[in-house]
Amino acid sequence: MHKKKLTPPESAEDTRQRLLEAAGEVFAEKGFRSATVREICSRAGANVAAVNYHFGDKDRLYIEVLKYAHRRALEKFPPALGLSKIASAEERLEAFIRSFLYRILDEGRPSWHGKLMIRELADPTAALDSLVEESIRPTYETLTGIIGEMIGKAASSDMRYFANSIVGQCVFYCHAAPVLERLAPGKFKGSEIERLAEHISQFSLCALRQSRKNGGRKTK
Fold it and tell me: How many Å apart are CA 2 and CA 20, to the nearest integer?
Protein backbone atom coordinates (compact mmCIF):
# COMPACT_ATOMS: atom_id res chain seq x y z
CA MET A 1 0.00 0.00 0.00
CA HIS A 2 1.43 3.34 -1.07
CA LYS A 3 1.55 6.12 1.44
CA LYS A 4 -0.08 9.34 0.32
CA LYS A 5 2.50 12.02 -0.32
CA LEU A 6 1.86 15.01 1.90
CA THR A 7 2.12 18.48 0.42
CA PRO A 8 4.27 20.71 2.62
CA PRO A 9 2.33 23.62 4.10
CA GLU A 10 2.75 26.89 2.27
CA SER A 11 4.91 29.41 4.06
CA ALA A 12 3.76 32.91 4.90
CA GLU A 13 6.46 34.23 2.58
CA ASP A 14 5.02 32.23 -0.35
CA THR A 15 1.60 33.75 0.25
CA ARG A 16 3.07 37.24 0.55
CA GLN A 17 4.94 36.78 -2.72
CA ARG A 18 1.81 35.63 -4.55
CA LEU A 19 -0.09 38.62 -3.20
CA LEU A 20 2.59 41.02 -4.46
CA GLU A 21 2.52 39.51 -7.95
CA ALA A 22 -1.28 39.34 -8.12
CA ALA A 23 -1.66 42.86 -6.76
CA GLY A 24 0.84 44.16 -9.30
CA GLU A 25 -1.21 42.70 -12.14
CA VAL A 26 -4.53 44.04 -10.82
CA PHE A 27 -3.18 47.50 -9.96
CA ALA A 28 -1.56 47.75 -13.41
CA GLU A 29 -4.80 46.74 -15.16
CA LYS A 30 -7.27 48.79 -13.12
CA GLY A 31 -5.33 51.39 -11.19
CA PHE A 32 -5.17 51.74 -7.43
CA ARG A 33 -8.62 53.24 -6.97
CA SER A 34 -10.52 50.62 -9.00
CA ALA A 35 -8.62 47.56 -7.80
CA THR A 36 -10.22 45.58 -4.98
CA VAL A 37 -8.65 43.49 -2.25
CA ARG A 38 -11.11 40.71 -3.01
CA GLU A 39 -9.97 40.43 -6.63
CA ILE A 40 -6.30 40.55 -5.64
CA CYS A 41 -6.74 37.74 -3.10
CA SER A 42 -8.78 35.70 -5.56
CA ARG A 43 -6.06 35.97 -8.19
CA ALA A 44 -3.41 35.08 -5.62
CA GLY A 45 -5.42 32.10 -4.39
CA ALA A 46 -5.37 33.53 -0.88
CA ASN A 47 -7.92 34.19 1.83
CA VAL A 48 -9.49 37.65 1.59
CA ALA A 49 -8.01 38.50 5.00
CA ALA A 50 -4.47 37.81 3.75
CA VAL A 51 -3.84 41.40 2.65
CA ASN A 52 -4.58 42.74 6.13
CA TYR A 53 -2.42 40.03 7.70
CA HIS A 54 0.64 40.59 5.48
CA PHE A 55 0.42 44.29 4.65
CA GLY A 56 -2.11 45.99 6.91
CA ASP A 57 -4.37 47.42 4.22
CA LYS A 58 -4.73 48.09 0.49
CA ASP A 59 -2.77 51.36 0.68
CA ARG A 60 0.25 49.70 2.24
CA LEU A 61 0.02 46.79 -0.20
CA TYR A 62 0.15 49.24 -3.10
CA ILE A 63 3.26 50.95 -1.72
CA GLU A 64 4.95 47.59 -1.24
CA VAL A 65 4.08 46.52 -4.80
CA LEU A 66 5.65 49.68 -6.24
CA LYS A 67 8.81 49.17 -4.18
CA TYR A 68 8.89 45.49 -5.08
CA ALA A 69 8.77 46.21 -8.83
CA HIS A 70 11.52 48.83 -8.52
CA ARG A 71 13.68 46.57 -6.34
CA ARG A 72 13.36 43.60 -8.71
CA ALA A 73 14.44 45.77 -11.65
CA LEU A 74 17.48 47.05 -9.72
CA GLU A 75 18.46 43.52 -8.70
CA LYS A 76 18.43 42.39 -12.33
CA PHE A 77 20.10 45.50 -13.75
CA PRO A 78 22.04 47.37 -11.02
CA PRO A 79 23.31 50.87 -11.94
CA ALA A 80 26.98 49.82 -11.89
CA LEU A 81 26.38 46.67 -14.00
CA GLY A 82 29.35 44.90 -12.41
CA LEU A 83 31.89 47.69 -12.96
CA SER A 84 34.80 47.87 -10.54
CA LYS A 85 34.93 50.65 -7.96
CA ILE A 86 37.89 52.21 -9.77
CA ALA A 87 35.95 52.67 -13.03
CA SER A 88 35.98 56.22 -14.38
CA ALA A 89 32.98 58.53 -14.03
CA GLU A 90 32.37 58.28 -17.78
CA GLU A 91 32.35 54.48 -17.62
CA ARG A 92 29.95 54.56 -14.67
CA LEU A 93 27.64 56.98 -16.49
CA GLU A 94 27.53 54.70 -19.54
CA ALA A 95 26.76 51.72 -17.26
CA PHE A 96 24.04 53.70 -15.46
CA ILE A 97 22.34 54.63 -18.74
CA ARG A 98 22.56 51.08 -20.07
CA SER A 99 21.13 49.52 -16.91
CA PHE A 100 18.36 52.14 -16.74
CA LEU A 101 17.30 51.41 -20.32
CA TYR A 102 17.25 47.67 -19.66
CA ARG A 103 15.15 48.22 -16.53
CA ILE A 104 12.45 50.11 -18.44
CA LEU A 105 12.61 48.35 -21.84
CA ASP A 106 13.57 44.75 -21.03
CA GLU A 107 10.88 42.37 -22.29
CA GLY A 108 11.94 39.70 -19.83
CA ARG A 109 10.32 41.45 -16.87
CA PRO A 110 6.65 40.92 -15.93
CA SER A 111 4.57 43.21 -18.15
CA TRP A 112 2.79 44.76 -15.16
CA HIS A 113 5.98 46.40 -13.85
CA GLY A 114 6.14 49.04 -16.55
CA LYS A 115 2.39 49.53 -16.80
CA LEU A 116 2.08 50.11 -13.07
CA MET A 117 4.89 52.68 -12.98
CA ILE A 118 3.43 54.57 -15.94
CA ARG A 119 0.01 54.60 -14.25
CA GLU A 120 1.48 55.94 -11.02
CA LEU A 121 3.40 58.71 -12.76
CA ALA A 122 0.42 59.71 -14.91
CA ASP A 123 -2.05 59.65 -12.01
CA PRO A 124 -0.02 59.90 -8.77
CA THR A 125 -1.30 58.50 -5.49
CA ALA A 126 -0.08 59.17 -1.97
CA ALA A 127 2.31 56.24 -2.48
CA LEU A 128 4.52 58.24 -4.84
CA ASP A 129 6.17 60.19 -2.01
CA SER A 130 7.27 57.00 -0.30
CA LEU A 131 8.42 55.43 -3.58
CA VAL A 132 10.53 58.46 -4.47
CA GLU A 133 12.17 58.85 -1.06
CA GLU A 134 12.90 55.18 -0.40
CA SER A 135 13.51 53.79 -3.88
CA ILE A 136 13.97 56.36 -6.64
CA ARG A 137 15.96 59.09 -4.86
CA PRO A 138 18.96 56.84 -4.00
CA THR A 139 19.29 55.86 -7.68
CA TYR A 140 18.88 59.47 -8.80
CA GLU A 141 21.57 60.60 -6.36
CA THR A 142 23.90 57.97 -7.79
CA LEU A 143 23.44 59.65 -11.17
CA THR A 144 23.92 63.21 -9.86
CA GLY A 145 27.03 62.04 -7.99
CA ILE A 146 28.57 60.71 -11.21
CA ILE A 147 27.70 63.91 -13.06
CA GLY A 148 29.17 66.03 -10.25
CA GLU A 149 32.50 64.21 -10.63
CA MET A 150 32.51 64.96 -14.34
CA ILE A 151 31.56 68.64 -14.44
CA GLY A 152 33.26 69.84 -11.26
CA LYS A 153 32.14 72.32 -8.62
CA ALA A 154 32.08 75.29 -11.01
CA ALA A 155 29.19 73.76 -12.95
CA SER A 156 27.48 72.03 -10.02
CA SER A 157 24.40 74.26 -10.31
CA ASP A 158 23.68 72.56 -13.65
CA MET A 159 24.00 69.05 -12.20
CA ARG A 160 20.28 68.33 -11.86
CA TYR A 161 19.55 69.73 -15.31
CA PHE A 162 21.99 67.22 -16.77
CA ALA A 163 20.55 64.39 -14.66
CA ASN A 164 16.99 65.23 -15.68
CA SER A 165 18.00 65.43 -19.35
CA ILE A 166 19.61 61.99 -19.21
CA VAL A 167 16.63 60.43 -17.45
CA GLY A 168 14.30 62.17 -19.91
CA GLN A 169 16.11 60.74 -22.91
CA CYS A 170 15.74 57.24 -21.48
CA VAL A 171 12.11 57.32 -20.32
CA PHE A 172 11.00 58.84 -23.63
CA TYR A 173 11.48 55.43 -25.27
CA CYS A 174 9.20 53.85 -22.69
CA HIS A 175 6.45 56.46 -22.47
CA ALA A 176 6.36 57.18 -26.21
CA ALA A 177 6.60 53.51 -27.24
CA PRO A 178 3.14 53.37 -28.92
CA VAL A 179 4.02 56.38 -31.10
CA LEU A 180 7.55 55.18 -31.87
CA GLU A 181 6.19 51.76 -32.86
CA ARG A 182 4.03 53.46 -35.50
CA LEU A 183 6.76 55.80 -36.71
CA ALA A 184 9.38 53.07 -37.02
CA PRO A 185 8.03 49.54 -36.33
CA GLY A 186 10.21 47.32 -34.20
CA LYS A 187 10.64 47.14 -30.44
CA PHE A 188 13.84 48.03 -28.64
CA LYS A 189 15.44 44.87 -27.32
CA GLY A 190 18.84 43.19 -27.12
CA SER A 191 21.27 44.79 -29.56
CA GLU A 192 18.90 47.73 -30.15
CA ILE A 193 18.97 48.62 -26.45
CA GLU A 194 22.77 48.49 -26.60
CA ARG A 195 22.81 50.87 -29.57
CA LEU A 196 20.36 53.18 -27.85
CA ALA A 197 22.47 53.17 -24.67
CA GLU A 198 25.56 54.07 -26.68
CA HIS A 199 23.73 56.90 -28.47
CA ILE A 200 22.34 58.46 -25.27
CA SER A 201 25.71 58.03 -23.52
CA GLN A 202 27.68 59.74 -26.29
CA PHE A 203 25.08 62.50 -26.68
CA SER A 204 25.16 63.20 -22.93
CA LEU A 205 28.93 62.92 -22.58
CA CYS A 206 29.45 65.56 -25.28
CA ALA A 207 27.32 68.03 -23.32
CA LEU A 208 29.03 67.18 -20.02
CA ARG A 209 32.50 67.57 -21.51
CA GLN A 210 31.55 70.93 -22.95
CA SER A 211 30.20 72.08 -19.59
CA ARG A 212 33.41 71.04 -17.87
CA LYS A 213 35.42 72.85 -20.55
CA ASN A 214 33.37 76.02 -20.05
CA GLY A 215 33.73 75.78 -16.28
CA GLY A 216 29.97 76.10 -15.84
CA ARG A 217 29.72 79.30 -17.89
CA LYS A 218 26.59 79.63 -20.01
CA THR A 219 27.20 79.54 -23.76
CA LYS A 220 25.47 82.12 -25.94
Answer: 38
